[in-house]
């Protein structure tokens, strides 16, 4: 398996930081999305709204439409829809962060797929963030320590 080049270590550190931030934001967005789905698609059948006739923050019931789809009855800003859209778009940013760290570390494809799953499996992004950060920091420290060790004296002396 190919190893990352030492010259790419600063880029790896930056990509790791970006990945860590993206994984936390994506994980929180996914948990909010799961909560929104529970509110909407269980017998509760409500959506979260901000403003409008219900006040600052309120729950509006959803009703079945003529073709069985759920129709919102609230007015104001539909936060449920906002959570869905924001998580969807930020998942694209998260995938970019995953691809960047994967390509710099030269990992196998299965690792990229596991990283990408962090944005669709609740809590997985938090677990993967901890594992990836630990693995990369350990790897970088080990490689830098190995490179810092001077070559054996016999190999560096010139013949007389």
UniProtKB/TrEMBL annotation:
Residue limits of the DUF3817 domain?
Answer: 16-133
InterPro entries in UniProt: DUF3817_TM
Listed GO CC annotations: plasma membrane
Give a yes or no for keyword DNA-binding in this entry. no
Record keywords, A-Z: Cell membrane, Membrane, Transmembrane, Transmembrane helix
Major site of localization recorded for this protein: membrane
Q: How would you describe this protein's topology in the membrane?
A: Multi-pass membrane protein
**Location in the cell:** Cell membrane
| Membrane spanning residue stretches | 16-34, 41-59, 79-97, 109-128
Keyword Membrane, does the record have it?
Answer: yes
NCBIfam families, sorted = integ_memb_HG
- Any idea what this protein is called? DUF3817 domain-containing protein
Organism of derivation: Microbacterium caowuchunii
